[in-house]
Amino acid sequence: MQRNVLASPVPVSNDQHGMTLTELLIVLLIISISFAFVFPAIDGFLLQQRGYYEIQQLQTLIDTSRTTAVALQSHATLCPLDSQQRCDNNWNASLTLFQDRNGNRALDTNETVIQTIPAADNDVKRHYPNRALMFDERGFAAVNNGSLSYCRRLPNNRYSTSVWIVSRMGRVRTGRDTNGDGLPEAASGQNIPCF
């Protein structure tokens, strides 16, 4: 009985080939240099996206505040709360939107929390000239009007910013950078507080 043996078109060798230590070090060096340039760019992009998300979150919270006041026919208050559940001036703290039935700028036991957003990190500055942004049952802000600003520090002296200008009538508009310096202006015409 005869067996057919097929010849391999590729020569088979028992020699093993690999990279030398020098070649491996050069490849690792190239990869390391590539990462050194790519990671800062990715980090800056991710921080900018986070800024956009937080701006959208604040915009939604402001809109929800006014809508809640009108829908519930009650005061709706947006503010940072202190340990006694009263509105405070630290707008970088966690922000709480609640139904403020008696309009006292404090979260009382019979009042409902509508929404909260977490405290800002160290690269963010939020500012509002009052302790609270409060809308009444008609949607008016009255004496609580002002400019709520947001500024996130990004790499290379750049910022992700926004400002919402709240009128006494309760209308909210977004401020613009009219002087071209990279920061939007508040209702007063001054740049928003940033770093």
Distance between the termini: 90 Å
Question: Per CATH, which architecture?
Answer: 3-Layer(bab) Sandwich
What is the total tally of β strands?
8
Shape field:
elongated
Sheet with the most strands?
4 strands, antiparallel
Uncertain residue ranges: none
CATH class: Alpha Beta
Radius of gyration: 29 Å
Could you give a quick summary of the protein structure above?
It is built from 1 helix and 8 strands, in the order αββββββββ. With 195 residues, it is of the alpha+beta class. Residues 176-195 are annotated as: Disordered.
Describe the fold and architecture.
By secondary structure, the protein is α+β, with helices and mostly antiparallel strands. The protein has one helix and eight strands. Helix content is 27%, strand content 22%. The longest helix is centred in the first third of the chain and has 52 residues. It is elongated. Strand 7 and strand 8 form a beta hairpin. The chain has a single domain, classed as minor pseudopilin epsh fold (3-Layer(bab) Sandwich). It is a single-pass membrane protein. This is Type II secretion system protein H. It holds the Pfam family GspH. It is found in: Cell inner membrane.
Q: Top keywords for this entry?
A:
195 residues, minor pseudopilin epsh fold, four-stranded antiparallel sheet, 27% helix, 22% strand
Write the layout of secondary structure elements.
Blueprint: H1 21-72, E1 76-80, E2 95-99, E3 113-117, E4 124-127, E5 133-135, E6 146-154, E7 158-166, E8 172-174
Antiparallel strand pairs: 1-2, 1-5, 2-3, 4-6, 6-7, 7-8
